[in-house]
Amino acid sequence: QVRLVESGGGLVQPGGSLTLSCAASGFAASSAAMSWYRQAPGKEREWVATITDGGDTTTYADSVKDRFTISRNNAKNTLTLQMNSLKPEDTAVYFCKAAVRQYYSSTYYQTYDYWGQGTQVTVSS
Question: What values do phi and psi take at 29, rounded to 5?
Answer without folding.
Answer: -55, -35
